[in-house]
Amino acid sequence: STPTIAVIIGSLRKQSYNRQLARAVERLAGDRFAFQTLGIGDLPLYNQDFDQDFPASALRFKNDIEQADALLFVTPEYNRSIPGVLKNAIDVASRPGGSKTFAGKRAGIIGMSPGAHGTVSSQQHLRNVLAAVDVAVLPQPEIALQYREGLFDDNGDIVDERARKRLLLFLERYEAWLR
Ligand code: FNR
């Protein structure tokens, strides 16, 4: 059956390039995967007191991750690392202690930034964090795309041929690795 992919976007802004990238990748993938984007903006800031009585939104988020066959992180870079909202979401889902939400999951990581080397550091940091919660990340290809005006057409598809090819290669490798 079609693998279900939980998509986690590391930006909350409406016009996020990474949100646009996620939508474009979903269309490129066609019917190979069933994608579900998990909102992280309404998760509470993690507090270890939660471990006695976990908030409902956090439990739902954990459940959505557990139900998914695999994860796809689409994230910007903030100050050479992952945005706080994304780290918070991972911290929330990793608890309470002994929690198996992430255990043995597989993930892909992609990102977009207007900067030439944007999201490379962010992706390296995210790999470290995911190792700590027992999530395996597809090693290659790394997808750190540079945003520029006109990269997305009116339908939200990526017009740049090189970027499209990289994303198709990523999807091919990701799908084969998940099998
Ligand atoms: C940024 N930006 C950024 N870009 C980058 O390539 N490396 C970086 O370290 C940072 N640092 C950074 C910190 C903060 C607090 C902000 C708000 C922004 C720029 C960032 O790539 C740009 O705002 C993107 O548009 C963010 O991604 P979304 O929201 O478009 O998906």
The Rg value, from CA coordinates, equals: 16 Å
Helix content: 25-40%
Strand content: 15-25%
Record field, number of beta strands: 6
Tell me the span between the first and last alpha carbons. 11 Å
Provide the CATH architecture. Answer: 3-Layer(aba) Sandwich
Largest β-sheet summary = 6 strands, parallel
- Structural category is alpha/beta
Looking at the structure, what is the overall shape?
Answer: globular
CATH superfamily: Flavodoxin domain
Helical element count? 5
H/E series = EHEHEHEHEEH
CATH class value: Alpha Beta
Q: Indicate the mean pLDDT.
A: 97
Number of domains: 1
Briefly summarize what is shown.
This protein is 37% helix and 16% strand.
